[in-house]
Design brief:
CATH class of chain A: Alpha Beta
Structural class of chain A: alpha/beta
Keywords (chains A, B): Hydrolase, Metal-binding
Number of helices of chain A: 18
Radius of gyration of chain A: 23 Å
Number of strands of chain A: 15
GO cellular component, one term (chains A, B): cytoplasm
Distance between the termini of chain A: 55 Å
Largest interface: A-B, 90 and 90 residues
EC number (chains A, B): 3.1.6.1
Oligomer: homodimer
Shape of chain A: globular
CATH superfamily of chain A: Alkaline Phosphatase, subunit A
CATH topology of chain A: Alkaline Phosphatase, subunit A
Strand content of chain A: 15-25%
Pfam families (chains A, B): Sulfatase (PF00884)
Helix content of chain A: 25-40%
Enzyme class (chains A, B): hydrolase
Chain lengths: 522, 522
């Protein structure tokens, strides 16, 4: 019997792996997450399947790669045909509660085509990506009716039709003017909301209230913070918790700009990269970013303390991860997308309370993990493994419960990019059909295949910071070839035969004679 | 203005390209189809996207490759998420009428999941693959309620609960015993039904009746014959129309059996291949197969004569093709599947009545054509091109209307195999997830990539009969590599972002500021 009664799946938005102290940050202390890692296990090499919110999250929520779930960028709806974690749980009579962000774009056209009433129970479930919304809050837009946050702010005296814009992401400059966190030059200022009224505090409260309401009843909760994603406005005192000198050194050099990959060069022309190419921007934003992370850790400490006191640490599987990282000026880039480890590698901590997981408790595991592993892992923890003809990830219990050396595990991870919606596509003169790229990352290599553009290759052993693109190095042609072969193999194994289970295939094998069909008899 | 008011899409089942006289058969005369080719154009190099009924047809009906539509074998339901030709036409207020076979397996699980009432208009349309069924008749099973054929037979005196089994595919042997066409040894005998009561005659009558009922009203009809597919029982006089010496020579040699590809070798162990490996079987079946084709041609002549008299030849786009070929003992194989031209190449005749098509009238075109081209071609003929984010085929009008030499066209075609349901998978000890293969065929090469099995390669210039597998020839490693690269490129360009149109992507490009999101501003 599994000891797991509840699941708490925590996601931070745009959080780089190297920005937790348990992952080696020398100045930014994250004691709550470090303690969680000590009680569970920490994956040193966890990677997302896309370096941007929407497709990455859809891989976390469906257990399938972007090429399969089809929601390849933030504005692409998740097809009604895709089955999410929430729907798997609903099939077991459980709910997947949501506090925070999902980035689900409902497939309205698909629902209309199939005459699914958006107001019906099914329609609501599909439009919400399978979640039961305690409080959906996607952040970086003025929150809508689905979140209680604007009303909460107004109750606490932030008198505005749009308190998020006027208070949460606003500050007051030296001249007493209210200025916006959309302009990154202002994020050294404290947010105009008091810390207990910030987004991170509010969403932690939602999770705490939910756990209290559930009492001893089992639950599965996705607690999905919108921070440290931009706008990078931190409430006091976190806005000044770190100085610019307490941030990680910039990972960039001038050689990167010479003969750069044409699509990377196009990304560098986008506004966020131009802004982050200045040291001034980096020295203002990075301390605020770190402050937001420290704040998050403090609230997680509050949450974990409650869980401890309520006995929930003994029967709750906790996963903490992020949807992708943030360049913050590394590689002369801002924001996310593309395929550097800065963006692709995320923290991934799992605290499995079961006795079997004692095998790895407190350890840092080097096995490669991907976003698609989340659904299989949660379903396995709850005792009802998902369908193997749909799920493309693996159960992390295989690692957490002590892997037999003979059990194979993956030795590379895959990620995808659809830049159809970005200025970089326009700059490259491409169509929405050929603005795509795929990455294969092994222990040693980062390889990127671009449609109708040159390849990229980085030797992560010789060049861990990914400065030197060997995509056109003739000495590395055979390496690139071998990685293209991996990509081909992976693409071909994609799970696209979705309408019949493997068990049904087994049953139907050679079934023609039972069906009265006798072809081939002489 | 297009001259096309109606579309007649005729499919034969399991008809090899080389079994029409206009495609070079020296003994089997097919004057009606030859005349159609003379009035239209004939594609010399038309290929299916899968060498088996279900997936091939789903590519014809959706305009998408099997890896995308997901119905990878006969028993795999077509996902409710896939849009068929019938649904595209329904969106224009037109119906796609069906007389005959579709091999659609309804996605009952998908409909149940999405609470689509199978009895509703939508449910019926989806379950029928978008067709309005005049008479659905999939053949090679006892027909169900959806076809009027059993009742028709009983009305004509074939007194039986199952007149198909007892009469249509039965014969009477020299000892007066009723014997079954399931046993191929019996197909030299005439069917127990009179020719006018045969499947081919019946279905032609359905089409004729439909055209007459429509009067001058526009229509789109899929006339889909179940012949010359097994059981190979032909009615008199067609059962003896050809002698064994009037059949094509067997395309096989003993070298093929030495060191054969392991999956091909496994197919050769299946019953149909064992049967067809004997000359006796070949000499009995091939004449009957040819008789069934000649019968089909005679009925098409009847149909085309009516159309001529009714003025329909002037305003009807006619397409004639097949879902795949039939080995009939070639390569020591029976039935279909795998990737030889015998099975992959099909007849493909298009009669476009519009003036623009005069450019190619009566010609044999060498450009490569695939099943996925059907939907774009029909939609273009009717004046409402389909969505380019879903359709993977091309409009054949580009060729039929006289291609400018500067207009690019494809130089290879792709086909797919899922042998999960076959004995060959069991013989190879594989799972339902890795019993797959893909073929790339160019002018010169036939390349096959198998999951976890050796490659195959044939040099079609030096070895047009595909006897010598160069899959392990070290001299051809670079050729195989180049073809794997083509396969990778094709797989990556697959249209899997199905929930948003390219036009919507264009509109949403750079739209964040309009949505109130200002990331990246300093």
């Amino acid at each position: 019997m599994s000891a797991v009664q509840n699941v708490l799946f925590i996601m931070a938005d745009q959080l780089r792996a190297d920005h937790l102290s348990c992952y080696g940050h020398p100045y930014l202390q994250t004691p709550s997450l470090d303690a969680l890692a000590a009680r569970g296990a920490r994956f040193e090499r966890a990677f997302v399947n896309s370096g941007v919110c929407g497709p990455s999250r859809m891989s976390y929520y469906t257990g399938r790669y972007p090429s399969r779930h089809g929601a390849t960028w933030n504005r692409v709806p998740l097809s009604v045909n895709e089955i999410t974690l929430g729907e798997y749980l609903a099939g077991q009579g459980r709910e997947l509660a949501l506090a925070g962000k999902t980035h689900i774009i409902p497939d309205k056209a698909g629902m209309e085509r199939l005459a699914i009433d958006g107001a019906s129970e099914l329609g609501v479930l599909l439009a919400r990506g399978g979640f039961t919304e305690l409080d959906r809050y996607d952040g970086h837009h003025t929150p809508g009716e689905e979140s209680g946050y604007p009303a909460f702010l107004r109750r606490h005296g932030y008198d505005s039709a749009d308190p998020w814009t006027d208070y949460v992401i606003a500050g007051v400059d030296a001249d007493g003017r209210v200025v916006s966190g959309w302009n990154m030059r202002n994020v050294h200022l404290p947010s105009r909301v008091a810390e207990p009224h910030s987004e991170t505090a509010y969403m932690t409260d939602q999770a705490l209230d939910f756990m209290k309401r559930r009492g001893g009843q089992p639950w599965v909760l996705h607690l999905s913070y919108v921070k440290p994603h931009w706008p990078y406005m931190a409430p006091a005192p976190y806005h000044q918790r770190y100085t610019a000198d307490q941030c990680l050194p910039l990972r960039r050099n001038h050689e990167e700009l010479a003969d750069a990959h044409p699509v990377v060069a196009a990304y560098r022309q986008q506004e966020e990269s131009v802004s982050f190419s200045s040291d001034e921007c980096v020295r203002v934003v990075r301390p605020a970013y770190q402050g937001l992370i420290r704040q998050l850790d403090d609230h997680l400490g509050r949450l974990f303390d409650y869980m401890e006191s309520a006995g929930l640490m003994k029967n709750t599987l906790i996963v903490f991860t992020a949807d992708h990282g943030d360049f913050l000026g590394d590689h002369w880039l801002g924001e996310k997308e593309l395929f550097y480890d800065t963006v692709q590698r995320v923290p991934f901590i799992v605290m499995d309370p079961s006795v079997e997981a004692d095998a790895t408790r407190g350890k840092a595991l080097a096995d490669m993990v991907e976003s698609v592993d989340l659904v299989p892992t949660v379903l396995r923890a709850l005792g009802t493994p998902g369908p193997c003809h749909l799920l493309e990830g693996r159960e992390l219990q295989t690692l957490l419960h002590g892997r037999d050396g003979a059990t194979p595990w993956r030795d590379c991870v895959f990620s995808e990019l659809d830049y159809s919606f970005r200025q970089a596509r326009i700059l490259r003169g491409k169509t929405p059909q050929n603005a795509r790229a795929w990455s294969v990352r092994t222990d040693r290599w980062r390889y990127v295949y671009w449609l109708d553009e040159p390849e990229q290759l980085f030797d992560l052993h010789a060049d861990p910071d990914e400065y030197q693109d060997l995509g056109r190095s003739s000495a590395h042609a055979s390496t690139r070839l071998a990685l293209r072969e991996r990509l081909l193999d992976w693409m071909l194994r994609g799970k696209r035969r979705t309408t019949i289970s493997d068990e049904a295939v087994e049953k139907a094998t050679n079934a023609h004679k039972r069906a009265g069909v006798f072809f081939g008899q002489w």
